[in-house]
Design goal:
By secondary structure, the protein is α/β, with parallel strands linked by helices. The chain has two domains: about 1-50; about 65-215, Mannitol-specific EII, Chain A (3-Layer(aba) Sandwich). Helices cover about 45% and strands about 15% of the residues. It contains nine helices and eight strands. The strands form two sheets. A five-stranded mixed beta sheet has the order 4-7-8-6-5. Strands 1-3-2 form a three-stranded antiparallel beta sheet.
């Protein structure tokens, strides 16, 4: 999906002049046709996540909450792997997916994205996903939080090894983009980041996600 400058400004919650400046100075991906800029929505989302820029919530009551997707996908501990290839393969194996899902294909698509550019978000967290949404035959979107058995070098921007993965599998492009945006927004909340970096269990993670969805202000975790 291609966005105009005005549509991108609404999604990024900034003035249009700021979008132009980010294109010129900060590497915001854009193409120019007929004297006008157009932005690929998927690439814009990835760029915004890398920069830590929050996005406006998209309209549509039918869009799922990240908490519901994570409740289906679960929290997985002690995911093994000495490198990115092994860690992602083990994480994909843990996902609760239908039997007919091609896990080797899913792993291959995730690895292709890592070779194109790291999904390391920083602070020991990565969000493995693809340039094109991972669309598989699943009845509902699934998100999983994986705690790795040992930190792995994902070539993250801050240089820190990764010990936490967020992975999602969705049935539509719109849901993929929506959940990717929600993950990025949650990782801007210090209390949520402190919870997952502390190895919190699923109920506590879900509670914080639902509080954020309800409009809770960012706050430091107390435990």
């Amino acid at each position: 999906m291609q966005l105009t400058i005005s549509e991108a400004a609404l999604l990024l919650q900034v003035p249009e002049d700021t979008v132009y400046r980010w294109i010129r100075e900060d590497g915001l991906p854009a193409s120019q046709f007929g004297g006008r800029f157009h932005l690929n929505k998927m690439w814009l989302l990835e760029w915004a996540h890398d920069k830590g820029i929050p996005l406006a919530a998209e309209a549509g009551a039918e869009l799922p909450d990240l908490a519901d997707a994570l409740a289906r996908g679960g929290v997985h501990r002690n995911v093994p792997g000495a490198n990115v290839v092994e860690a992602l393969r083990a994480a994909v194996d843990r996902l609760p997916l239908p039997e007919d899902v091609d896990r080797a294909y899913l792993h291959g698509m995730l690895m292709l994205r890592e070779r194109q550019g790291s999904t390391g978000f920083g602070r020991g967290i990565a969000i493995p996903h693809t340039r094109q949404p991972i669309l598989l035959h699943v009845p509902e979107p699934v998100a999983a939080l994986c705690y790795l058995e040992q930190p792995v070098d994902f070539s993250a921007v801050d240089g820190q090894p990764v010990s936490i993965l967020f992975i999602q599998v969705t049935p539509t492009i719109r849901i993929h983009l929506h959940l990717l945006s929600q993950i990025g927004r949650a990782l801007l909340d210090p209390a949520f980041v402190e919870l997952i970096r502390g190895g919190a269990d699923l109920p506590r993670v879900l509670d914080r996600l639902r509080a954020l969805a309800a409009g809770a202000a960012p706050a430091r975790a107390t435990a």
